[in-house]
Amino acid sequence: MAESVKLPDRLAILYCGNTVLLPGVLFRIRCASPSSVSLVEQELCQREEKGLIGILPVCDAVAEVPSAGTMPSSGTGTNLGERSSENQKETSDSHKHGSENQQEVIHWHNTGVAAQALQVSIEVEKTSGRVIYLVVFKGLCRFSVRELSKRGPYYTAWITPLDMTKAGKDEVTAADIIEFSRKFKVTAMELISVLEERQKTGGGIEVLPGTVPMCTLADIFVARSESSFEEQVSMLDSVDLKVRFSKATELMRALMEEFGGNDGDDYDVAALERRMQDAGMPADIWKHARRGLRGLKKMQPLQSGYDSLRVYLGFLADLPWQKASEEWELDLKAVKERLDNEHYGLVKVKQQIFEYLAARKLKLDARRPVLCFVGPPGVGKTSFASFIAASLGRKFISISLGVVKDEADIRGHRGTSPGLLIDGLKRVGVCNPVILLDEIDKARSDVRGDPAYALLEVLDPEWNKTFNDCYLNVPFDLSKVIFVATANTVQSIRPPLLDRMEVIEVPGYTPAEKVRIAMRHLIPRVLEQHGLSFDFLQIPEATVKLVIQRYTREAGVCDLERNLAALARAAAVRVAEQDHAVPLSKYVRQLVSPLLDGRLAGEGEMETEVIPSKVDNHDISNAFRVSSPFIVDEAMLEKVLGPPRYGDREAADRVANAGVSIGLVRTLFGGEVQFVQADALVGKGDLHVTGQLGDVIKESAQIALSWVKLSLVWICLFPNIEINLIQGRDIHIHFPAGAVPKDAPSAAVTLVTALVSLFSQRRVRADTAMTGEMTLMGLLLPVGGIIDKVLAACRYGIKRVILPDRNLKDLVQVPSDVLSNLEILPAKRMEDVLEQAFEGGFPLRQHSEF
Ligand SMILES: Nc1ncnc2c1ncn2[C@@H]1O[C@H](COP(=O)(O)OP(=O)(O)OP(=O)(O)O)[C@@H](O)[C@H]1O
């Protein structure tokens, strides 16, 4: 399912002439007119986070109509009213704007698409020296225009979102939609096989069914096919997903006819037979395929089932039954060097990868467990998996299991479409790639079956020799594939799957490690991606530290990389604005894509290009000569990234009132600091726990409250707390921290401290965080994830950490620079925690007094 999108009420509208952008499509636009340049500068370059604008098609660019009150437009064209067909008029509910003097009218269509800017690059025009922006957008979702007005040099619209609303998302899972999408996929596969037989390319449509979310599948197909403006506008107007699927399916059928999909069948079948013979199918599969071919030959092309049988046989012919990448002799010394050069730190993880590769060199066909990298987002799990593939000279594909809810997603749909694995193998074209099973902990079951069963078959060396995909209907040998998996936590991986894997824990990074990773890896990569070099832009170490402290709170480096990219984008704009920027060099002009180049010659103000796949970034650095590099300082940081998102006073502000304590928990995002809030209101003595919580944490809250009550009533542990402060009150415990789901017993100690703070009306220390499970007797038990938790404390500027003394041994793996900044306070009993958590200790009745 596509990500949900929250649109603002008002969007700036970029004039793109009669071009239609559809959701899911990547689109490159050349902005040269003053209005579009100022839109890019004001809406995209100065607002780092959103980068959202609207694109409305113009049904033919300009009309010369004597109309008072119209606004001038920046395009050229002819009168839509005179030229348009009835059909166009129906689909074009255009807005008219003008001025008294100008007689030009822009016929804006009233449905558009919100687009997110993914990349902005700059050119300086050779002759005039004016700045031109090349912006890569991604279409997000449809909107309709309530009101359109001109705001300075460009238009803005008050909008109403049309799809990716709650209703729209529910619609994606409806049974009839799934049926429509299946029909679409079958037709898509027919079209692909027709294109392949005719040796034509489909603009990348062959990768669509397996990789694109269902709600944008039809849109992307229509955008990539050579459909007319009217067809694209009609698609834009189709808010109903079923209508979109049936329009796209119709279009495909028309294309098939155009390519002669239904003509020349004798020729087709002969070509198919040749492809099948060359596919290297094992003997029994070949027997099955030949039977199918004989059946096909007996059928009439218009007979029902003919097309799907032909597509199926084509699919069999395209699978890499034998074709494999040649595995080269591993040079272990070179592998070690590259592993160290490409990945900073993580010595233990790199050692485990090295040992895995060395073991392969010794015994190629040895059965090994599947490596599973487990850790928070952005710590390099995917990067390690692709390193393994590159070292072995194998192709690499990643299959996201986060979206898999149904066994059939892995195993395929009978008679309709293959599962993710077999489809992935067809795309990669070899039978021995490295396949990354990404987010294996997120593969969940529903009423339609448990994907874990299919994954078991995939990962088990006994079974995967004869993997059964329901669409394929014959076994496929997966034993040559190297599987690698990633997960955020082992707890959610199904035990039988976990049994077949070797877990490599990838912990979060310390601030010092993040600085090193940024300086050595992220900054050079980000500069390259934005066409810059160190001659233009330098981000000093001190600035990187500020970015880490003030703009990120993560265990990995994803946000850090995003922030560095934002700085690079802003710097690219500044560089181009400087007076000493010189015209585009010959080198860069060669790099500009031929399509855009052709259009540049036409002096057009606005040029657009649908990007079929990943965009190549062109090195614009060479376009400019600057006297000195641009250095990102603190002032620029705030200008580009906005005011700091995180300060060092957060803990102090949060514990300003009694009833709040600071805990360390482990979530899917690594260790986290958790401010637990307790409150007592008049009631019947019930306990209410709120936040995104699992059952274990709720049970911990119950144990914590029982322990406080027992200690108060039976052993009179707290001389300063009156029993009537608790009796007749409902206790409310809240775990703020956004939408981060939590479930672990390690919050018990924090819960008790919050309750004791509430009842005694004493504030806890703002520099102290704690973690630990406890028994009803108040004894502390060891908990997991201590390293992640200590790193989280360090991100929040916490100075003291209380933990069960039996966890002390786990700290050996924490980097010494982190430990040297922390006071570690081991505790055996809950009383020890309370002693340490409050300023000046906590007055407890001594055991001898009982
Ligand atoms: N130790 C490291 N050295 C160099 N670069 C790193 C290191 N760790 C992470 N990176 C970089 O950080 C970025 C994010 O890494 P990657 O996507 O591999 O993380 P991940 O753990 O797979 O995240 P997710 O769970 O979100 O997929 C990549 O650009 C990666 O190269």
Automatic annotation (TrEMBL):
Residues 70-82 have a biased composition (Polar residues). Keywords: ATP-binding, Hydrolase, Nucleotide-binding, Protease, Serine protease. Its main location: cytoplasm. Its EC number is 3.4.21.-. One of its GO terms (cellular component) is cytoplasm. Residues 83-99 have a biased composition (Basic and acidic residues). Gene3D superfamilies: 1.10.8.60, 3.30.230.10, LON domain-like, P-loop containing nucleotide triphosphate hydrolases. It comes from the Eukaryota. InterPro entries: AAA+_ATPase (IPR003593), ATPase_AAA_core (IPR003959), Lon_bac/euk-typ (IPR004815), Lon_lid (IPR054594), Lon_proteolytic (IPR008269), Lon_Prtase (IPR027065), Lon_prtase_N (IPR003111), Lon_prtase_N_sf (IPR046336). ATP binds at G375, P376, P377, G378, V379, G380, K381, T382. Residues 67-102 are annotated as: Disordered. It catalyses: Hydrolysis of proteins in presence of ATP. Residues 655-840 form the Lon proteolytic domain. The active site is at S746, K789. One of its GO terms (biological process) is protein catabolic process. Residues 11-256 form the Lon N-terminal domain. PANTHER family: ATP DEPENDENT LON PROTEASE FAMILY MEMBER. Belongs to the peptidase S16 family. This is Lon protease homolog.
